[in-house]
Automatic annotation (TrEMBL):
Pfam families: FMO-like, NAD_binding_8. This is Flavin-binding monooxygenase. SUPFAM superfamilies: FAD/NAD(P)-binding domain. The lineage of its organism: Bacteria, Bacillati, Actinomycetota, Actinomycetes, Micromonosporales. Its cofactor is FAD. GO terms for molecular function: monooxygenase activity. It comes from the Bacteria. Keywords: FAD, Flavoprotein, Monooxygenase, Oxidoreductase.
């Protein structure tokens, strides 16, 4: 079996993988790379999900790439528009020839004697293999082949159609039918108003309420900035504005949860019919941003409730019946279609098994370094975006830092890079400090984080700008070596200290 070799093997051709490929092309153009995509199309999430109304819940000025302006008038965009944007990015940056479809990575093993990853891949023609100096996991954190779908008592007795949003059938017809959407997260609040326009009636059935806020589909200030400053400058300033706004809202909710709760309730009450039981359906038992806030563009969910085409029900499911759902309260919800918007199945590193010098890597025993590498695992990087802001903001910073790291290794002739905590007794906690159910279900299968930088996983953009863009690449807890001689380098040269007086590092990290 022929083995193909590249400098960097990227896993995943979604928003993270396309971003990684573009940064490699522009920042370290001498590097060879391939992007392996298990499915038959690029775009990741935005190609996978086909349920009604699929859209972003972050504005595209921050969810888009820093290097490619989002030019549409609508800042909260539908999946087809986002998918077109991603594929246009790939084409503009010459990434299409680098993407291999129907290539699913099963496992990878690192050999310190050669400083190479050997990667086992299921390709269209069967098993294939790659070797790579670096393995870059850009597949997000959830399973694409199966969403979270708990079994409900009596489910098999239901005579209608049961659908999970992650596997939406193209031929599903809900026109004139009674629909119950089980769930309270971003998927549910998207599906309900999208189906309410043509269904006979849509009920959103939730066990626990979620904080929901309305957001304009169009960013009036952003559109004005792009009009008067031009697309690039206007986009850049809108991006800065929205980053600041997101950060301010998150900090306000964290520091003043009671005030934030009252404010959200007041805004919800204004959007709902007079006398509506706001506290029953829109008052969660946790503080704002303990879980991700749900955004509804132009208040479409509230509009559907006001129009009477959609209804909120907060209760527990007793069992499914032949024609609907019986609730713990005794109420029966008639249904022809039941949508189980019950969430995602999170998995670490796309389910790839890793070994280092013959020893299996137990991901839950590792500690994340700068939120992008794993302790004790050489030449391996991964991307997990923000949970309290736009995912892509962190993608850009991690990719920039990764390219600086590659440039540093080339400059000094290093072939191996491995993070190790100096203090083996450092306290650790879960990698994601997030109370969402889909995270709690798998928390013991994810990496850990430490209690100090660089082992602390930041969820703050401005903190990461300092850590990943402005700060040095090298660190006393990041060790470098060479194949067949993995002795650690003790100099840890700072890339901000150029080799000659007066020189300043350019974006590749090399003096100019």
């Amino acid at each position: 079996m022929a083995v193909e070799h590249v400098d960097v093997l990227i896993v995943g051709a979604g928003i993270s993988g396309i971003g990684a490929g573009r940064y490699l092309k522009t920042e370290v153009p001498g590097k060879t790379f391939v992007i392996l995509e298990g499915r038959g199309a690029s775009g990741g999430t935005w190609d996978l999900f086909r349920y009604p109304g699929t859209r972003s819940d972050s504005d595209l000025h921050t969810f888009g790439y820093a290097f490619k302006p989002w030019l549409d008038q609508e800042a909260i965009a539908s999946a087809p528009r986002i998918l077109a944007y991603l594929r246009e990015t790939a084409t503009e940056n010459g990434l299409d020839p680098h993407i291999r479809y129907h290539h699913r990575v099963r496992g990878a093993s690192f050999d310190s004697s050669t400083a190479l990853w050997s990667v086992d891949v299921d390709g269209p023609a069967g098993a294939t293999a790659f070797t790579a100096r670096w393995l870059f996991c850009a597949g997000g954190y959830y399973r694409y082949d199966a969403g979270f779908a708990p079994r409900f008592e009596g489910q098999d007795s239901f005579e209608g159609t049961i659908v999970h949003p992650q596997h939406w059938p193209e031929d599903l017809d809900w026109q004139g039918k009674r629909v119950v959407v089980i769930g309270s997260g971003a998927t549910a609040v998207t599906i309900v108003p999208a189906m309410a326009g043509t269904a006979a009636h849509v009920t959103m059935l939730q066990r626990t309420p979620t904080y929901i806020m309305s957001m304009p589909t169009k960013d009036a200030i952003g559109n004005a900035l792009k009009k008067y400053l031009g697309p690039k400058r206007g986009y850049a300033w809108t991006r800065r504005k929205n980053i600041t706004m997101q950060r301010w809202i998150w900090r306000f909710c964290q520091r003043h949860p009671d005030r934030a709760r009252r404010l959200i309730r007041r805004l919800n009450a204004r959007s709902l019919p007079p006398g509506y039981p706001v506290d029953e359906h829109f008052r969660p038992p946790y503080n704002p941003w303990d879980q991700r806030l749900c955004l509804v563009p132009d208040g479409d969910l509230f509009a559907a409730i006001r129009a009477g085409t959609a209804e909120m029900v907060t209760d527990h499911i007793d069992r499914f019946t032949a024609d609907g759902i019986l609730l713990a309260s005794g109420r029966h919800l008639p249904a022809d279609v039941i949508v189980t918007a019950t969430g995602l199945n999170v998995q670490a590193l796309g389910g790839i098994t890793l070994t280092v010098d013959g020893v299996p890597v137990r991901v839950n025993d590792t500690i994340a370094y700068k939120g992008m590498m794993l302790s004790g695992v050489p030449n391996f990087a991964f991307i997990v975006g923000y949970t309290n802001s736009s995912w892509t903001l962190k993608v850009g910073l991690l990719c920039e830092h990764f390219c600086l790291l590659l440039a540093h290794m080339d400059k000094h002739g290093y072939e191996i890079c491995r993070p190790e905590p100096a203090d083996p007794t450092m306290p650790t906690r879960p990698f994601l400090d997030f109370d969402a159910g889909y995270i709690r279900r798998v928390i013991d299968h994810l990496p850990r984080q430490g209690d100090r930088l660089p082992w602390l996983t930041s969820m703050h953009y401005h903190t990461d700008v300092k850590l990943l863009r402005a700060d040095r690449v090298t660190d006393p807890e990041l060790h470098f070596g060479r194949a067949a001689n993995v002795a650690e380098d003790d100099q840890h040269q700072d890339l901000r200290r150029p080799d000659r007086p007066g020189a300043t590092p350019d974006r590749s990290g090399l003096p100019r």
